[in-house]
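hi! just following up on the protien thing from before. the input was this:
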Amino acid sequence: MSITNLPNIQSPLPGPSTLAVNVMSRNQAAQSAVLSLLRPGGLLSAAQIQRQAHLTGWSTRNTLARLQARGLIVANSCSGTWHISERGRAAAAANQRSYA
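and the predicted 3d structure came back as:
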């Protein structure tokens, strides 16, 4: 059988664009969950955030780094805790309004 005579087989795997959208939506969901946890105020460690947001260790670290890079959360290096910034509080409030 030559290559030109092969049957058209559809791959059961999603295409690259579908995977990118899934990863993006998971990242956004994780970021939203972390902001929601930190929104009431107070300080939480990465381990507390991981448990309360039901995230993996990698996802927690990645999410914290992304939110910190965007200026939405701030790390307290002495105690190893995180808190939400004023910018993050505004973003969390805007996110809540979009779901209302």
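Helices lie at 16-38, 46-53, 57-69, 86-99.
The chain has a mean pLDDT of 82.
cheers
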